[in-house]
Amino acid sequence: MSPVWQRWLPLALIACFALGLRVWDLDRRPMHADEANQAVKAGQLLAGQGYTFDPADHHGPTLYYAVLPVAWLRGEHTLAQLSETTVRLVPAIAGTVAVLLLYFLALPLGHRPALLAAAFFTLSPPAVYYSRYFIQESLLLAFALGALFSGMQWWRSGRLGWALAAGVCAGLMQATKASAPLFVLAALAGLAVARPLPPAPAQIRRHLIFSLLMAVFVAGLFYSSFGTHFAGLGAAWDTYTTFGTRLAAGLTGHEKPWWYYFSLFGWRQEGGVITHQLGISLLALSGLVVALFSTKRTLLRGAAGFTVVLVLILSFASYKTPWHVIHLGPGLAILAAGALGAVPERWTQAGNLMAFVVLFTLSSQVKLTSFQRPADERNPYAYVHTSPDILKIRPLADASDGPVRVISEEVWPLPWYWRGLNNVGYWNTVPDDCDGTLVIASAGLAGQVEAKLKGRYTSSFVGLRPGFTLVVFKRQP
Amino acid sequence: MKLRSLLTFTLTLTLGLCAVSAQEQVALQLDLPKPLFVGTPRPIKMANLEVFSHKRPDFMVPAGTVLLSAGKEVTSSDEFPVIGELGFVTDGDKTGMDGSFLEIGPGTQWVQIDLGASSPLAAIVVWHFHSQARVYHDFIVQVSDDKTFKTGVTTLYNTDDDNSSALGAGKDVNYIESNMGRIVDAKGTKARYVRLYSNGNTSNELNHYCEVEVFGTPAK
Hints:
The structure holds two protein chains of two kinds. By secondary structure, chain A is of the alpha/beta class. Chain A has 19 helices and seven strands. Chain A has helices at residues 3-23, 33-46, 62-73, 84-106, 111-122, 125-130, 137-157, 160-176, 180-194, 204-223, 231-248, 260-265, 278-293, 298-316, 329-341, 348-372, 393-398, 414-417, 443-452, and strands at residues 267-270, 273-276, 404-407, 424-427, 438-442, 457-465, 468-475. Chain A has a five-stranded mixed beta sheet with strand order 4-3-5-7-6. In chain A, a hairpin with a 2-residue loop joins strand 6 (457-465) and strand 7. The model of chain A has no long low-confidence stretch (mean pLDDT 92). By secondary structure, chain B is mostly beta strands. Chain B has one domain: Galactose-binding domain-like (Jelly Rolls), CATH 2.60.120. Helix content of chain B is 10%, strand content 31%. Chain B is built from one helix and twelve strands; from the N terminus they run H-E-E-E-E-E-E-E-E-E-E-E-E. Chain B has one helix at residues 2-24; strands spanning 25-27, 60-62, 66-67, 73-76, 102-104, 108-127, 140-144, 154-158, 182-185, 190-199, 207-209, 211-216. The longest helix of chain B is centred in the N-terminal third of the chain and has 23 residues, at 2-24. Chain B starts with a helix and ends with a strand. The A-B interface holds A 269-273, 375-377, 387-389, 443-444, 446-447, 450, 458-463, 465-467, 469, 471 and B 41-49, 83-84, 98-99, 101, 103, 132-135, 137, 161-162, 174, 176, 200-205.
């Protein structure tokens, strides 16, 4: 076999496997409320209703715009036509690109460790889970890895093109999520710890200015809805003030203890379901030790600095959601691969066995969290997830030929499942007239709703989320 | 005079029988597990859903009624439970804590208890899962002397209003799970086997049992 095949075939296989894991049976898990909300926004953009950035409760615009080409390729042009598979293909593709970028980023460790790092990340349970989830995280991760890789290439080659590429990626990061500056901080920390040789470019300041301008231009393009809504630029800044106020008041609703992320990479047992990432975590810790005591392994030190600082930032902030752990995956994969790369030659077999054991345990955890129990509340990645019961909702509305009312304090993801229906209305409080051919009420409001119903109804029950039950009233002839 | 004496005798006999009969009825004593809920489920007052209450009226059973199911053999439509063991259903541990409940696969599934002998049954009490407010769909309780439930089947409880589990439509009320469990009136039906069906719940597609207790008069 030629060296080219030896080099690229394994990477191609890993990429194909990564893509397969991320796209297989994409529509099986019910839509989370956040996914549904964002999918409706994407659908409105697709249908030509435009997009304006909302700093109060939404992240950046790239996710919605990224849906467009995928939807067009799949022949979908309206919100009603848009499918779960289409919107989730966006994070799935981004998650696969992230695997490839990680390989190229880890290449200074050598071809085999870089392949191992890519394989570890391919099978990272949170990376697989959130690459099948229509939120911004895998997109943000792919752009962050793109920025790091481009920056690394610029540092070595001194070519302006790489500086501009890094700027484009940084701009896309900012246009994806307002948390992008945290990654810049972590990258600077990684650089400080890595202590690489001085950069190659002669005109460092000029390149950096061009890169920064490119980042601002790209981010501005998206936040201004491609020049059609310049108020979006100001709104992008408002994100920080709005979030800062809520964070200071402790009103984010996602406050958790400092050790929360550590628990996700350790061992958890909840309701008889065991989730863990012990293998990769222990191997990454070994890589951290190697990085600390090795003066030669610049990349390993950089990955250690980046990951440790990111863990500290995420753990220090009281606002914590599980999808942030996807960003720790690449660093851990590089450190784990670096640890195996440092195994002396005479222990190669032991190193191979260790890699196999870690890959096996990761794959079993991916099977459990992404395929067997993707919406189970005991799955640490299924955060306040919609109950599978909700899949019974669409047929109910399809069978209804009159007005459908939803009277509930919380309604998402119902508007997604009932997209394209014109006979549905939503109320947060109980209206005077509650009647309809189908009336869905939250458990808390169901008593008041029933008291106002005229005519004969049967009632049944559907779970919106664990612990949040909806009462379904069907009018009888 | 004769007629009056006859009437007096009849009345006395009837009252006496009633008194004896009343004496034979006693309140079913249940050992309830500690509540795992934080707070109380939201009260829902529906035609098909029972109002949640921490108190319920005494359930009367004939004197001499005992727990027949303790430690009895349990079988299931899911031979390889996802979590726990089939024996958990009759092991007496109804705490609902991790390691004390049985979880079986998605869709319509059943567990079956073999009481060892056909006995008049008074009550069947089930605790599906009581650490969260949830409703189990298509909860059906059947009893029979036929192990395969092909003949002589009596349905004691059925909430499957649309017959989605294909065992016949039922009109019994749904209810929110709690530590109080659900008492199903067995009405003195004589049977050896008790089978309980469910079809997922409002939180997930799986089926759970912390404990099932079958009360009745031991077979002579």
